[in-house]
Amino acid sequence: MPDYIKKRYSEEIKDKARKIRAIIADVDGVLTDGGIIYTGSGEEIKNFHVRDGMIVRPLQRSGIKVGVVTGRDSAVVRLRCEELGFDVHLHGIKNKVAAIDEWLTQVGISWNELAYIGDDLIDMGVIKKSLLGVTPADAPEYVKEMADVILKSGGGKGAFREFAELVLNEQGKLEGVINEFLKNAD
Fold first, then answer.
1. Which H or E run contains 50?
2. pLDDT 10s digits, 155-171
3. CATH code of the domain containing 46
């Protein structure tokens, strides 16, 4: 087990991480830094961290469903979701608990097998209801108070990856993911 995981998380958090079958994340403030840039022609630009995207397929190959639920509907976010091959991506959702509940029912996963990473008011209900409610380091204090895990990384700075590595490690799959990439480097 990597030292940073062993030292940072309690046995209770590590035990919960072993039960995770799905990780759902918010987009703005989790997969991005929360900033939105508009061009003069009205196009939206967002900054995604490549390491967050790199871990999606290894999570899926490890049997973990991965998705996003976002309150905004953005063409650039849809494009990123398609590119990464998320199992689910729901856009323009104002009631995230209801939308996630419906998806969980469809795929046969319970709230007690879900980790959710969010950073703002719209995410608080899902953070509270999930087995593991997670938030980036730069979330508001009242959101952090509801979370089981406060990550070291900020939104758009590898927060999703940081949490994914915890889950993969606790499920005994992180070393295999690393070795798979090393094998392909030969």
1. helix 50-54
2. 999 999 999 999 999 99
3. 3.40.50.1000
